[in-house]
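User: I'll paste a sequence; please echo it back and then give the predicted structure.

Assistant: Echoing your sequence first, then the prediction.
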Amino acid sequence: MYEYRVSNLGQMYLYNAESDDEGYDGKYSHIHREFEIYYMMNGEVEIVLEGKKYIIISDSLLLIPSNCFHQWKYPPGKIHRRIGIHFLPEFMDKLEGDFFLSEFTEPVHFLNASLHKLNFYVQAIAECELFEEPMQNFAAKAGLTSLLSHVHFLKTTKSVKPVVLDERIRQVIVYIGENLKEELSLDILAEKFSLNKNHLNVLFTRIVGTTIMKYVTAKRLGFAQQEILSGNRFNEAAYNAGFKDYTTFFRAYKSFYGYPPSEAMVSGIDFTRHEKIEDVSYLKSG
């Protein structure tokens, strides 16, 4: 049995989840625009974030960046309890966002969260759902700022390094992220990294959870969305993200996010659409 409760705290959503026998096969890969703070109160899960594996055990905390592919696997038959905090960058003002969201350029993992008092800040945010409006939103923002301040203080000395599942795939991921505007095809990537293209695609899919070209498209869409939210024109955002024509960008964007680019500025968190990359069925799989 798997149960969860979602609380709306403005531009932040709070998950309280518990399972006593639910198992996942670890093949479900998804991506979303929200930043995510994942605190495992009791249990164990294996999370793979773009080719890097994190073992999350009781009293562990993981910070997941925006637009980051992740998949998980829970051991079946074991109880787990977790709190998830999802928030959009718009939850903070520009000055706060410029500073604190830099903490989410890469995942950050802590063991023994209570030893570092991170659980205190997570619990303080969780308790905001008990407040009356609009105090909920004010308190949640203050709690999040406090949590990220503490993470900033701890991350260089107390965070845990992930396991890189394959160094070649890590290099491919880095290259894609640094060259979204360039021509990126399976043939080009295979030649650059001296790998058979079919082997590369199978290996990439097994480790990351999606094919290379679907991954590229999702990353480009995430980049374009941030460009739009920063005030750039739609066609300029599409070009900067590597789309060669606006029609292709528009179709991909609407299919992936569920709304057109023109509604990016007004769309909040939609928990019915934590994008599985397989949903963009018409895109080439590579």
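Residues 166-279 form a domain with the Arc Repressor Mutant, subunit A fold (CATH 1.10.10.60). The CA atoms of residues 176 and 184 lie 8 Å apart.
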